[in-house]
Amino acid sequence: MKWIKDEDFIRGNIPMTKFNIRILTLGYLAIEKGDRFLDIGAGTGSISIEAALHGARVYAIEREEEGVELIKTNREKFGVDIDIIKGQAPEDLPNIKINKCFIGGSGGQLEGIFSYLDINLEDNGIVCGNFITIKNLNNFIELLNKYRYRDIEVQLIQVSTMDKIGLLKGQNPIFIVKGVKDND
């Protein structure tokens, strides 16, 4: 599998999960052929595109019109099939069964999203979220525990890249959190 570099995505003013974080996130999700994957707060669609290239059936929800258009454009550029939903989680989430879910943006609706996952994420399904604020990180971990997820993992990732003259430029530190839905 060839991973897509950030500069290959068509981008606008919508946040995008950067290459190093994207690869780790997809690794935590263990995306594989046949997965039914939901990307909440899909942004430019970088996670959705990579998941589709790994063989997942992808549903991407994004509330910003610019993001929806970027996902459509990137979907066409990379020749993948993604169902795009313009809307807000949890009220506009599809009534489908999924086995993998990524939360890149929650719009402050993590509790409602977990209520949705309680019904729609299959037992042993994986949820993974990326966070830049401690408040959202803590809320996510509390909800993983409340809904009795297991195998919870948390990592803080700090990425810096060297520019053309040799200076390291840091990106925002990102918390990657994963949990597996319990089957009882």
TrEMBL record:
<feature type="domain" description="Methyltransferase">
    <location>
        <begin position="32"/>
        <end position="95"/>
    </location>
</feature>
<dbReference type="Pfam" id="PF13847">
    <property type="entry name" value="Methyltransf_31"/>
</dbReference>
<keyword id="KW-0949">S-adenosyl-L-methionine</keyword>
<keyword id="KW-0489">Methyltransferase</keyword>
<dbReference type="GO" id="GO:0032259">
    <property type="term" value="P:methylation"/>
</dbReference>
<protein>
    <submittedName>
        <fullName>Precorrin-6Y C5,15-methyltransferase (Decarboxylating) subunit CbiT</fullName>
    </submittedName>
</protein>
<dbReference type="InterPro" id="IPR025714">
    <property type="entry name" value="Methyltranfer_dom"/>
</dbReference>
<keyword id="KW-0808">Transferase</keyword>
<comment type="pathway">
    <text>Cofactor biosynthesis; adenosylcobalamin biosynthesis.</text>
</comment>
<dbReference type="GO" id="GO:0009236">
    <property type="term" value="P:cobalamin biosynthetic process"/>
</dbReference>
<dbReference type="GO" id="GO:0008276">
    <property type="term" value="F:protein methyltransferase activity"/>
</dbReference>
<dbReference type="InterPro" id="IPR050714">
    <property type="entry name" value="Cobalamin_biosynth_MTase"/>
</dbReference>
<keyword id="KW-0169">Cobalamin biosynthesis</keyword>
<dbReference type="InterPro" id="IPR029063">
    <property type="entry name" value="SAM-dependent_MTases_sf"/>
</dbReference>
<dbReference type="InterPro" id="IPR014008">
    <property type="entry name" value="Cbl_synth_MTase_CbiT"/>
</dbReference>
